[in-house]
Amino acid sequence: MNWPDRIDNYCAVTGFPRSLFVDGTGRVVGTWIMGADYRVSSGYYGGYPAGYLKRVRALFPEKRSTLHLFSGCVDLAAFPGDTVDINPDRSPTYVDCAQTLTNVPLDKYDLVLADPPYSVEDCEHYGTTMVKRNLVMRALQRLPAGAHIVWLDQVLPMFRKDHFMVEATIGMWKSTNHRFRGVTVFRRL
User: Fold this and answer.
1) C-alpha 101, offset from chain centre
2) What are phi and psi of 172, to 5 degrees?
3) Is 127:100 a contact under the CB 8 Å cutoff?
4) Where are the alpha helices (DSSP H) in the chain?
5) Are 187 and 147 in contact (CB under 8 A)?
6) What is the tens place of the pLDDT at every residue in 90-144?
7) Rounded to the nearest 5°, which phi and psi values hold at 88?
8) 60-94 burial, b if ≥16 CB within 10 A, otherwise e?
């Protein structure tokens, strides 16, 4: 599926106006303004903002095997898939460290949604330590060619350009007094 088709599907499924565009380099750029809906369906600190999973799912309708990395209490009704978390109390499919993913058969996934802790203060809420984003991206090199990673963060992780291509960068505003975040879409080469 190409990006113009993904964007058309996004508009059709979500009903939102066209806010994503293919730029002159072939990369998708855009902005999502999530609005003042403060609900987090999971009720979990740091959970995805209302509507986020619907938007991402609309961009990838053909994907059949999704992995939620740093899953916490992700709403699997909104976006079905397997989960990875270091905290066994979250009942993930795989209890594993995101920096190694040794227990996860990455070759079976064609889409990964990642939302790591953004700061030390966030880690205190989760009872974890900060991850080294470059090690997470190194572990994700085991994904099959063509797999996509949707990375939600305040930081662009270091990655190898011979393993991943950035296909989209989307700025995301939740509402006033909330952190600005970036959605980066990588494709495994």
Assistant:
1) 16
2) -130, 120
3) no
4) 3-14, 52-59, 120-126, 133-139
5) yes
6) 899 999 999 999 999 999 999 999 999 876 676 576 677 788 999 999 999 999 9
7) -65, -20
8) beebeebbbbbbbbbbbebbebbbbbbeeebebbb
